[in-house]
Amino acid sequence: MTTRTGSPHLTSTATKSKNKTITCGACGGDLEPDHPGIQCLQGHHYCTECSTHIVRLVFSEPENYIPLRCLECHIELISSVFERQLTPDQVEIYNCLMLRLAFAKNFLGEDERLDDCPFCTNAIIRNINASYIFYCDHPECGKVSCLICRKACPKIEDDYATDEEIAEMEKHFKCAELADDKHELDRYVELGQKMPCPTCGLAGMKDGACTHMTCPKCSQLWCYFCGKKVEDCERARDSNNGIFDHNHNWERNPKRCPMYLTQLSELDNRWPEDEFECLAMFHRNRSLRLLREAFEKLGEERIKQVDDHFKTITTCGFSFKEILEEDLTLIKYPDIDKTRL
């Protein structure tokens, strides 16, 4: 009942002994009292492997995970407890993240944004409508870059640019023209590999357990398969088994969901029997569904322009034909004249 972002299923690496009473709050593995993983003031502990996973979560969505909090009780963590999990390279990135988030929260006006150089740690407060061409004034950098594609731009030293420099700058002007559509398409691609909490929006990919999710940020209980919080899930009237009632009789009720993805193969032979193959199939379907929605919103011609310039669709592994034509029926019910879309 945990979420993950781009990491393998969490397992404990701790060695068990007879006298241990401390367990990891994420994977349930036994821990030594003096283990080096994350600990909170309320006595919740995480093994080193799960602590590494927590670090990855923070770095993947810092705006949602900072200030740092325990995933169980949500009490703020002592920063040094988190920082000791970081590698030397991560420490520098973490310090920059904290500084930028502090600026964004406390100093930016409504008409301002914080832009950072793609090639160094320099960041500057600029008007929200400022150019996406960034001139870094750090004395050890000084590069010119495009904040959309995050690539270097020609640094024109005199009044006359060469034909090659003009052609290169025109590419970056095109980046600016397509920036909003690129951002929107990137959002659809990213969401295809995650499921967001229906209450706070914190998104991640589940592990190999059941479809019952508890959000580590707001504690909302929700269903990974349909994405609804337990209060909104279809359940029997006067039921008193919480989210488990949402799984009851799912084989015959398209508004309910299986507790485990592996149950789907018993009803629909398109689904594999392996848990992680099921998860991959689920997110493939979700990705195609969201990309089809993006096509309807932005239009095929605009999508093609974005893909020609940034290769967004090309690199995500789907063809235009798959996005626009593939059957996206999620569950086919063999003995009922219904389908789950």
UniProtKB/TrEMBL annotation:
Keywords: Metal-binding, Repeat, Transferase, Ubl conjugation pathway, Zinc, Zinc-finger. InterPro entries: LUBAC_E3_Ligases (IPR051628), TRIAD_supradom (IPR044066). Gene3D superfamilies: 1.20.120.1750. The keyword Zinc applies. GO terms for molecular function: transferase activity; zinc ion binding. Residues 20-245 form the RING-type domain. Pathway: Protein modification; protein ubiquitination. This is RING-type domain-containing protein. The lineage of its organism: Eukaryota, Metazoa, Spiralia, Gnathifera, Rotifera.
